[in-house]
Design a protein that fits this description.
CATH architecture of the largest domain: Alpha/alpha barrel
Number of domains: 2
Structural class: alpha+beta
Distance between the termini: 53 Å
Number of helices: 14
Length: 600
């Protein structure tokens, strides 16, 4: 696999990755952060996979059913054609809840002729730890891990089970199916029933996507990114994952490999702001419930991240028996960064709370709880904003006075004042305004570097950092302010390489960064657009879109030389920033068309 050429399928309970050739190479059941059933992406020999195999005469192509999460892999040799339609069931039930079981359906659709294929079914439960044994039973194929942890999965199929397990050729004369289930089924699945699951799931996604506005430009990219963000949301708690994978490296052969199957307050809040702007209220409501539930005590500080079921301890261990993606070790499960202090999360959370209060003020639940949360966050920021932290990029060693963290402390107080206006709390407005002005003065005095002519990474630093580009989008400074324009130019000079951006170029805990962080390039494009360099911004945007995989999906990083995708996949950060950029271009286009109409 050269370029993370995978599609994601899911049902807001878990997710799986299917390669462009139709191999299921990553899947965790029953939930996103469960141990893997298939992990070939992390070890080609010990990880396990579930592949559909055809002869070299077959051409293989892959696409999504438009505006859905149904992934279609087509195999054709001229006279013989069939498709594999991969999905995880999700649809509304009559009682108002969702049907979203921990299972994957591979619906085999007969198109033409008598195509022949075989199957390699090789589950390796519990990340491949211990021995997984597979047995053919009367109604299903059962796989059991009796190692340190007991685990099972069940495969149901309309095809001959012995032929499936032995990898013998299967001639397709009519539609068939494979159903991989974490639970044993009470009723025997049939092809007819699997087709019904397919159609119901398709209708669910079409209805969901229909809520997203249509845009004149980049509409397909916006829709695909929106569906991808939805696939990274966890219905049960409202959490939103940073990505669906663990330990896909930022750089091949290095140790920057992390588990991203958790809910970062920063990433999730940014996602919620974008997705709710697209009209998807329920994602925002569930996430705010998630936040409210996490903070029972008024003085309890927020962690930077939580487990998807609100776990507060995310102990990090390494799986030393796995070789890692293309030999990049270690493979990690859990994430020690949950212990870090990052002061920016308060501003990002306050920003999303304020946005929801404005957007849904007539029907937003938890108003009193959100006001209590607002006051608690102000108290924490007031007490701690002068302290150094680990910053947005999670430096694991020294704490610094990062500019982005300080700006987001200002955002926390600025949005709190705006929320106080909504709730007509005049005394709070007066008291908090003085604090807001104090933080703002401090940033202008200490983050601006006269020699560099830019706001730099941290107080007293000469290093540039892409995160300072967000000063404008959070309202700290106007886009046409000479200081911001100069900062954008300095970021380009120091961090841009052939239109792709480094996060920063100074050494961190693991040496010098060597890949481009995708969201930073989107931030830079947005900043160019805002300062008036719209044509160049559009050119860079189109160039960046060309680096996505064959399905329009992005990971966390891009290699500067080869332009291959790197890092965990698909990455919520990358897709939310893609949507923001695309919407800006579309709005600009809409405004120009209105002006042209008025002039004519």
């Amino acid at each position: 696999m050269d370029n993370l050429d995978y599609g994601i399928i899911g049902n807001c309970r878990s997710a799986a990755l299917v390669s462009k050739n139709g191999s299921l190479d990553w899947c965790c059941l029953p939930e996103f952060d469960s141990s893997s059933v298939f992990a070939k992406i992390l070890d080609k020999n010990k990880g396990g996979s579930f592949s559909i195999n055809t002869g070299p005469e077959y051409e293989v192509s892959q696409r999504y059913k438009k505006d859905t999460a149904l992934l279609i892999t087509r195999y054709a040799d001229g006279d013989n054609i069939f498709e594999v339609r991969d999905f995880m069931p999700r649809y509304h039930k009559e009682n108002g809840t969702y049907h979203a079981p921990p299972e994957i359906i591979r619906y085999i659709r007969h198109i033409k002729g008598r195509p022949v294929f075989s199957v390699s079914y090789d589950p390796k439960l519990e990340y491949g730890l211990g021995l997984t044994e597979t047995f053919i039973k009367k109604s299903f194929i059962a796989s059991v891990n009796k190692g340190e942890k007991y685990d099972t999965v069940f495969l149901y199929t309309s095809f001959n089970k012995n032929a499936v397990m032995e990898g013998r050729p299967l001639e397709l004369k009519k539609d068939g199916f494979f159903l991989l289930s974490y639970n044993e089924k009470l009723f025997k699945p049939t092809t007819k029933r699997m087709y019904l699951e397919l159609e119901r799931t398709k209708v669910y996604w079409l209805n969901w996507s229909n809520q997203t506005p249509l845009y004149r430009e980049y509409n397909d990219q916006i829709q695909r990114s929106a569906v991808t963000l939805k696939l990274l949301s966890y219905d049960r708690s409202g959490a939103i994952l940073a990505a669906a994978t663990t330990s896909l490296p930022e750089t091949i052969g290095e140790t920057r490999n992390w588990d991203y199957r958790f809910c970062w307050i920063r990433d999730a809040s940014m996602v919620v702001k974008v997705v709710s702007e697209l009209g998807h209220k329920n994602v925002a409501r569930r996430y705010l419930r998630f936040i409210v539930d996490l903070i029972p005590d008024k003085d309890e500080k927020l962690q930077i991240m939580y487990g998807i079921n609100k776990e507060k301890r995310l102990t990090e261990i390494t799986l030393d028996h796995l070789d890692g993606y293309e030999g990049s070790r270690p493979v990690r499960v859990g994430n020690a960064a949950y212990k870090q202090r990052q002061n920016d999360i308060y501003g990002i959370l306050m920003d999303v709370i304020y946005a929801q209060l404005v957007r849904f003020k007539n029907d937003l639940e938890h108003g009193e709880e959100l006001w209590t949360l607002t006051k608690g966050i102000v108290w924490i920021v007031q007490k701690h904003w002068k302290e150094p932290d680990k910053g947005i990029w999670e430096f694991r060693t020294e704490d610094r006075h990062f500019t982005f963290s300080k700006v987001l402390c200002w955002v926390a107080i600025d949005r709190a004042i705006k929320i106080a206006r909504i709730f007509r709390k005049q005394r709070k407005i007066e008291r908090w305004t003085a604090l807001e002005q104090e933080i703002k003065r401090d940033i202008h005095e200490n983050a601006w570097n006269e020699e560099v002519q830019a706001f730099t990474q941290s107080y007293g630093s000469f290093h540039m950092d892409a995160s300072v580009l967000l000063m404008e989008s959070y309202g700290f400074i106007h886009a046409r302010d000479p200081k911001f324009v100069s900062t954008v130019k300095a970021v380009e000079t120091h961090l841009s390489h052939e239109g792709l951006l480094y996060r920063y170029r100074n050494e961190d805990d693991f040496g010098l960064p060597s890949s481009s962080f995708t969201i930073c390039t989107f931030w830079f494009i947005n900043s160019l657009f805002k300062i008036g360099e719209e044509d160049r911004a559009r050119e860079l945007f189109d160039q960046l879109l060309s680096y996505s995989n064959h399905l329009g999906l992005f990971s966390e990083d891009i290699d500067f030389k080869s332009k291959r995708l790197l890092g965990n996949f698909p990455q919520a950060y990358s897709h939310l920033a893609l949507i923001e950029c695309a919407i800006n271009f579309s709005r600009k286009d809409s405004v120009e068309r209105v002006l042209e109409t008025m002039q004519s």
